[in-house]
Write a structure and sequence with these properties.
By secondary structure, the protein is α/β, with parallel strands linked by helices. It has eight helices and eleven strands. It has two domains: 188 residues, Rossmann fold (3-Layer(aba) Sandwich), CATH 3.40.50.150; 61 residues, Single Sheet (S-adenosyl-L-methionine-dependent methyltransferases). α3 crosses α4. The two termini are 33 Å apart.
């Protein structure tokens, strides 16, 4: 999945209230629990790079990877405007999270904000996990989040509407889900109605995304097959085991030291 064009252009407007700093601190805490000396992080599906900036502020050296050139252009602009960490602490690369091979290993690989839910087949999941494994140093930590199958099936997604605006534009977004339970998928039809305030020009954009919800048991099988160990699942932003009411769950696993 790759955000392009208008969706990428207005992404930060829609998620400007997202608690990136708190999420980076939480992620760092999960990393430190497994590898206290961790210094380097690979962020798969980094988007506009705000999370990378927050991790750099915590002292990590970060590489952000994304398929969307539009999103990465915004990430680089965010980085250039920041002045409270070394610019050398962050770099951004365009690439596929199922196939990327770095020139060096990382102490942690993360993939957040449901990126793994855009992997819609077991093969794609396996390829992404293999990518994570090969890019980790021995003893490295993997953290990824996703839509949690038990919660999605118990409380299926509903139509959602959100409005976001700044001095230049007002955008109304409507997301209409279709649950495809035979394949553990959700199809999202997304419409954006964009009003430019100065000209009153209206533009409507239609987009379609397919997401997969995952069950911890199938993730554990794939992780073990690839070579990960010490697998734990948490309700997002907690250290508690997920329940069937928790839509957002993260999984943490470790690559053996040898």
């Amino acid at each position: 999945m790759s955000y392009l064009g208008k969706h990428a252009e207005h992404y930060d407007l829609f998620y400007r209230d997202k608690p990136y700093r708190e999420e980076a601190q939480y992620t760092s805490g999960l990393i430190r629990l497994r590898k206290a000396e961790a210094l380097t992080v690979l962020d798969l599906g980094c988007g506009t790079g705000v999370r990378c900036l927050e991790l750099a502020r915590l002292g990590y050296r970060v590489c952000g990877l994304d398929q969307s050139a539009d999103m990465l252009a915004m990430a680089r602009q965010h980085c250039l405007r920041a002045s409270d960490f070394s610019q050398a602490a962050i770099r951004f690369l365009e690439g596929d999270i199922t196939a990327f091979v770095a020139e060096e290993g990382f102490d942690a690989v993360i993939s957040l904000f449901h990126v793994f839910s855009y992997l819609t087949t077991p093969k794609a999941l396996g390829d992404a996990l293999s990518c994570c494994f090969h890019n980790l140093n021995p003893g490295g930590v993997l953290i990824f989040d996703y839509w949690h199958g038990p919660a999605v099936t118990q409380d299926p997604p509903a139509i959602r509407r959100k409005t976001a605006e700044d001095s230049a534009v007002r955008i109304e977004r409507t997301s209409v889900p279709t649950l495809l339970s035979d394949n553990d998928l959700v199809e999202l039809s997304v419409s954006l109605q964009i009003e430019e305030k100065k000209t009153r020009i209206l533009q409507k954009v239609e987009e379609r995304y397919v997401l997969r919800y995952w069950f911890p048991e199938e993730l554990e099988r794939q992780l073990a097959k690839i070579g990960f160990s010490a697998v734990c699942h948490y309700s997002w932003m907690t250290l508690s085991a997920p329940t069937n009411k928790d839509w957002q769950v993260c999984t943490v696993a470790t690559k053996a030291t040898r």
